[in-house]
Amino acid sequence: MKALHKLxxxxxxxxxxxxxxxxxxxxxxxxxxxxxxxxxHTTAKGVxxxxxxxxxxxxxxxxxxxxxxxxxxTWNIGHQYYLSLGDITTADPWTAMFLDKIIVGAIKVxxxxxxxxATGLGIEFVIAGINGHAINEGFLVSGMLIPLIMPVDxxxxxxxxxxxxxxxxxxxxxxxxxxxxxxVALTCRAFLFFAxxxxxxxxxxxxxxxxxxxxxxxxxxxxxxxxxxxLANTVGQPVQGEVxxxxxxxxxxxxxxxxxxxxxxxxxxxxxxxxxxxxxxxAAILIWTGIGSWRIISSFIVGGLVMxxxxxxLSLNAYMTIxxxxxxxxxxxxxxxxxxxxxxxxxxxxxxxxxxxxxxxxLFSIMIRVFNPAYPEGVMMAILFMNVMxxxxxxxxxxxxxxxxxxxxxxxxA
Amino acid sequence: xxxxxxxxxxxxxxxxFSKKNRKLLTDPLDDSNPITVQVxxxxxxLAITVQVxxxxxxxxxxxxxxxxxxxxxxxxxxxIPDRIRIIVQLVVIASLVIIVDEVLKAYSxxxxxxxSVFVGLIITNCIIMGRLEAFxxxxxxxxxMLDAVGNAMGYAWxxxxxxxxxxxxxxxxxxxxxxxxxxxxxxxxxxANGGFYENNNLMILPxxxxxxxxxxxxxxxxxxxxxxxxx
Lengths: 414, 231
Fold this sequence. Notes:
The complex is a heterodimer.
Chain A: H1 2-16, H2 26-36, H3 55-85, H4 98-131, H5 138-148, H6 156-171, H7 184-195, H8 197-200, H9 209-214, H10 227-232, H11 242-251, H12 259-264, H13 276-288, H14 294-314, H15 324-329, H16 333-340, H17 351-371, H18 378-413
Chain B: H1 19-26, H2 42-47, H3 52-75, H4 85-107, H5 109-115, H6 117-120, H7 126-134, H8 141-171, E1 173-176, E2 180-183, H9 206-223
Antiparallel strand pairs in B: 1-2
């Protein structure tokens, strides 16, 4: 390592500093150098207590927390693929064709990750070069989150267009990393959802499911729709009607979307959102390292449970008869609560604000998915909405604090 | 001994296309563009830019109402009582808008249908009211006409630029009044026919008009740094 450092310091660095011939690419060099070695920056003014953890380490730890979800998602893509073709049965989910599943998953996931990073980092490098800013690591996490919330078979150029849109319009326009109002990864997904609805909703959530369907290869009961997609069909149907009963049987014990399957994540869905268990492992890592806010994660889950419980008590339609715990382990709820809502930039900043922000986010997630079948994935909308509301929440929390202290002061003086 | 005689300089008749007047025409295209700098007339810019043909018709309608309004109000500027000037201006604009609306209904009913209420809403277009208040009431008809043409053009080019982006990426087509919509992408490109391409549905939705206008403002300000506000 020392030899490498010496080589870079003596041979490579002079090219980029001063009048070196590559000085236009200083930002690129700087980004890669700080990636390898701890930068020697010191604070210029005043006394600061500095933590050893900087942006780069923070981002890296978030990626570590995403690994369980990513690995499970990769396996699950293959698992769903072979299940839908009838090559394996649910009787032996773990050992049969294990390697084949991983290979199918990797073939789908790796290109998504590569495209997302190449597009996003490419734009960041160009913009940092134009503005003369240092390239920072803001995109490392977004670039990983984007592939994890995509449908398996989404065309890669769409991912590239959406990533470019999200990085430019959601982030760079507002001033780059740390200045964005909306979560970048969710903006990317929302863009795709509205721009290319055919590729982002319906029966598309298993690899090659449409081809298998038209070829008549699909196993019985498989359609390629998510749990939420099936449930959205029951809206407007009588509670005990034929459609509702058919759908609800899938959610009973032993059905395709039973509580246990939803919790472990062996159901169709976006690449890595299906497993509530993997998201919870990620949550544990984030909370243990102090990076993710436990206030947001827990209040988000409580918000979802409260709304689910209210609906469950009302039970006005078949969708509402799903229990609150079942509600929050379906779809992207847990993944959103752990990795999206906790985005430190777009979330509320005050402690009280975080409780309110998380609680309302969870509440709206369930509310949107139950009330509006056009938006089965309510989590995305709810978090984006709460991103917009976060500064307002913070404003009122701070105002209340000022008023409280003012009162205390006048009481003390009087 | 010579006695100095000063002849009173007769105020020179200013030519219609003097430098000052030319500025009336060119300023609204960039430096004081009604949409991107003054942020007026945004609602119609968002609502009718899905297709180029609607944007063209809308621009022509605004151009007509604007010239008519500015010239008429400018000619009446000395007889309009100050207290009721807004009402007088509204009456002038409204009559002109009704003319446009009737002509559109008679000669191109389909476009008239697509523009729906937005032709009627030209009455409330802030650009027109703004120019009448700010310019026509204090200037002669000649310059008032140039001002009207300049502002209507400033409005029109933004409208056309936004509409072009939205129609090309949202519908894969370009349209023009009289020609209709021409789809220029081969059918085989689309996913429904086994291709790889899909039109961007978000472009059809109003939010994308807002974002497109925003991007135009971004490009304009990065080229014309005097427009950037200090804070």
